[in-house]
Amino acid sequence: MKTILFILFLVGGKVITVSIGNAQSLGEVRKFDLGDDLTIDMIWVNPGEYLMGSPTSEPERNALNEQQHNVTLSKGFWIAKTEVTQQQWEAVMGNNPSKIIAANHPVEQVSWNEALKFISKINTNGASFRLPYEAEWEYACRAGTSTAHAGVRDQMTWHFGNSGRSTHPVGTKIPNAWGLHDMHGNVSEMCMDWYKDDISNDNLDPKGPASGTRKVERGGQYTGRIRHTRSADRSSGEPAKNAFFVGFRLVHD
Known about the structure:
Elements: E1 4-11, E2 14-21, E3 29-35, E4 38-45, E5 48-52, E6 69-73, E7 77-80, H1 86-93, H2 112-122, E8 129-130, H3 134-142, H4 153-156, E9 188-194, E10 215-218, E11 234-237, E12 246-247, E13 251-252
Parallel strand pairs: 9-12
Antiparallel strand pairs: 1-2, 2-3, 3-4, 4-7, 5-6, 7-13, 8-13, 9-10, 10-11
């Protein structure tokens, strides 16, 4: 039997509803309600195993930090269908720091530290949203594939060659096989982990090194090269700094 828990709490004077519980199938969708008809759709991802990183035969791979290795994720998780939008950010935080202002475009120019403040606000009274761990992010991005992209590249990806030097509304490119949009391109996405070049020995529920100076960023972005939109590509940024090409998506345990 499916178990669903509804949590009600206040953010900025608005009643917030989140439905969580035991999913029955891969790709099941639940809605997180921000009020004013704003929602964040969360998609269920089953636990599983996969090859993280890229094979030596993959064009434009980075041999320094894409060592291919087996990873097991022992628990399933909810992950947002798209990146957090400017409209969603503003509903919670009351401001919009983005360089390219458009309600349904991904929020950008927010630091890792600021993203955690957003998450803290929506975690009032027992919700457990967070950023994805890097291994979760790549697992969700690949959606069962082992190729450089999880489908036909330009049907899924906003990059330097097709973006017109702008972010785009979330969800306008086709999703991967698990229903997730914009995992390739639009804006790079922050992860929980501290960055380290070689993570190939971290194989069970990886969470990255215990400390560091930079946080992992994934997915490539609209002003970047196509090579950086590959599923295995890894980059990083300082947690206190913001950038016009970096945003984030949510995970819920």
